[in-house]
């Protein structure tokens, strides 16, 4: 009786550890995480002051370093949802205001990843796996084109690139 009870407890413990191990609770797969890009602004370096002032000295033009912020969260009020399914955007063009975001949601089949590129180099390329979101917050007015590229080949899907046009006013 005691022997069978001990054997039963041992079997339940083995089953429990096996279930926990296969569920992924012992460690996550960090390769499947959607990256959150944190752009560090460049340092503002003050040039040395020339002792002899020139008459035609113009102040340096400072280009904003962050046209589009890519992240996995959005704290603003307005975002437009664009879903991705069957290698297509749910809409190919959208108009938003400065400071608003476009939320990309991949609804592709399991393990089908895309790379998103800005034709204007407004953000660094990023990939998105099925079931995850990416928020693109647009900080400057303009027209932005976002290409969807096959993650595995680095080429467009089909003969022509799949492009989302975002107009920011």
TrEMBL record:
Protein name: EfeO-type cupredoxin-like domain-containing protein
InterPro entries: Cupredoxin
UniProt-listed PROSITE patterns: PROKAR_LIPOPROTEIN
Disordered as annotated region, ranges: 33-58
UniProt biased composition (Polar residues): 33-43
């Amino acid at each position: 009786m005691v022997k069978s009870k001990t054997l039963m407890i041992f079997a339940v413990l083995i089953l429990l550890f096996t279930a926990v191990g296969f569920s992924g609770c012992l460690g996550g797969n960090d390769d499947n995480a959607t990256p959150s890009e944190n752009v560090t602004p460049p340092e503002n370096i003050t040039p040395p002051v020339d002792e002899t002032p020139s008459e035609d000295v113009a102040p340096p033009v400072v280009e904003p370093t962050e046209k589009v912020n890519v992240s996995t969260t959005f704290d603003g009020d307005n975002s437009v949802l664009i879903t991705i399914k069957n290698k297509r955007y749910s809409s190919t063009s959208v108009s938003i205001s400065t400071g608003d975001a476009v939320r990309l949601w991949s609804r592709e089949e399991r393990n089908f990843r895309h790379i998103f590129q800005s034709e204007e180099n407004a953000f660094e390329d990023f990939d998105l796996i099925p079931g995850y979101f990416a928020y693109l917050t647009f900080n400057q007015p303009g027209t932005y084109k976002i290409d969807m590229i096959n993650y595995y080949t680095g080429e467009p899907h089909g003969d022509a690139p799949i492009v989302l046009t975002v107009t920011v006013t």
